[in-house]
Amino acid sequence: MFRRAMTLIVAAALLVGLAVGGMFLPVPYLVASPGLALNTLGERDGDRIIQIDGHESYEHDGGLSMVTVQYVGGPGARLDLFTALSAWLSPTQAVLPEEAIFPPDRSVEEISETQTLQMDDSQQAAVAAALGELEIDYERRAVVAGVSEGLPAEGRLEAGDVILEVDGAAVVGKEEAVRAIRDREPGDPVELTVERDGETERIPLDSTDLEGQAAVGALIGDDLTFPFDVHISVGDVGGPSAGLMFALGVMDHLSPDGLTGGHQIAGTGTITADGVVGGVSGVEQKMVSAQRQGAEYFFVAADSCPQTFDSAATGEIEVVAVEELDDAVAALDAIRTGEGLDELPRCS
Hints:
GO terms for molecular function: ATP-dependent peptidase activity; serine-type endopeptidase activity. This protein has seven helices and 20 strands. By secondary structure, the protein is α+β, with helices and mostly antiparallel strands.
């Protein structure tokens, strides 16, 4: 009897030990938490986040804050099961599969490089959208930023090529060039007219299928030339989701009367040079960041509205849905003047 009791005690102790040890084993998940909230009208580390040179600019009270998500975990830094379970129980955090941010077919370095490029592109697009909204002219061209290995553009297109035409039709900017290339069945031919080293070349290519759309394997960006310099600096933050708030921040700096009327607004959403606002992820955590910052209103891309209903900040901050930069400007006008607040576009 004594031997049997001891065996049970030892077995129970081993099971408890294994359970406790298992709690600290690495797991392939990420924890998403509320991150930074940076006022694009203010400073970071003593430097202005948006600095304009060569054109008169203004400083105003109020806030137009970009917000971020902080991720913990990932390849080489996996979190343990205990941390994942704790985050799962937290109302302000979310637990995601590792591949949501780190696809298995891409290295951490490739992902970081992409996020940096996306941030750079979003800043340029934001300036273009802001100037367009203010009816300030600038020059815009579609340029090849890179070529993917093993796809039709490899060896045919080069980084720096300026795309002038697609199938003989002139294109202005990234959006037109990409749209024109996709306007065919995958596998159909496409001819690009490019400017390279001062010479014009016509380059025939066979398109390929990328996620159900025709493509040639070239990363196309906007080559934008502005009539004055706009510098945006947010440190090592990556990704495109601050585009909307950058555009509003630039507009505020260029507007004698400002946009906010002293109110605190935060938001998230990508933006194109044409002012179209796109959806992003992590809205639940970004709303908490905005609330902690003291924001009165949270601007969100209309495509991301479903995420606004599940945040710990839901009901604690006014959410405004926007589809284009013009929608955000109109909402700011209502907030600033106090007129038409009941008509602000909401998520529903």
